Amino acid sequence: MRKLKVTEMGRLSLAEYKASEKQPIVVVLDNVRSLYNVGSVFRSSDAFCIEGVVLCGITARPPHSEIHKTALGAEESVEWKYFERTEEALSWLKQQGYTVLAIEQCEGSTMLQDFQRQPGEKYAVVLGNEVKGVQQQVVDLCDGCLEIPQYGTKHSLNVSVAAGIILWHLSKK
Fold first, then answer.
1. Considering its fold, how many domains does the chain have in total?
2. Residue-wise burial string across 151-169, b where 16 or more C-beta atoms lie within 10 A, e elsewhere
3. Cα→Cα distances 7→74, 105, 134, Å
4. In terms of pTM, does the model score above 0.90?
5. Could you tell me the CATH number of the domain that includes residue 99?
6. How does residue 173 score in pLDDT terms, banded at 50, 70 and 90?
7. Does 139 map to a domain?
8. Owning domain of residue 97
9. Does residue 100 lie in a domain region?
10. Sign of the CA dihedral 27, 30, 35, 36?
11. pLDDT tens digits along 21-52
12. Which residues contact residue 166 at a Cβ distance below 8 angstroms, ignoring those fewer than 6 apart?
């Protein structure tokens, strides 16, 4: 078995990526403080060809060298938008026809393995601050909550890891 060279992977150029059809999924970052997490979310968003990323509150915005360090240019390929308040972002997304789902541990949340995307639906997934998670007032505005099952002693995952898991699950055909 031989590792493929980058030139053998058939990846899209930036122009081809921008013109390609995207998954009807948007990631919303609710006050994510680590620029490396922001960059990682951009990179995963590019990998799964999602529509975009919405940055809210204290979440840093490109261009920034620390975002670029983990995004590796995905901050240029993935469309993004900034809102000062996450509540404003959710209102905008709902007006665009998105079903908004908090990625959080909530009463009545749906376990990720039990969730199936509905054909023709557009989804926005909200990921929260590294310490406090998704703000309760933001959870209150969501259409539902998805929970990633965990079986160890820790009660949370790194936000960029959670984003990767969620995007992989939602992008499965």
1. 1
2. eeeeeeeebbebbbebbeb
3. 18, 41, 40
4. yes
5. 3.40.1280.10
6. low
7. yes
8. 20-171
9. yes
10. negative
11. 999 999 999 999 999 999 999 999 999 999 99
12. 103, 112, 125, 127, 146, 148
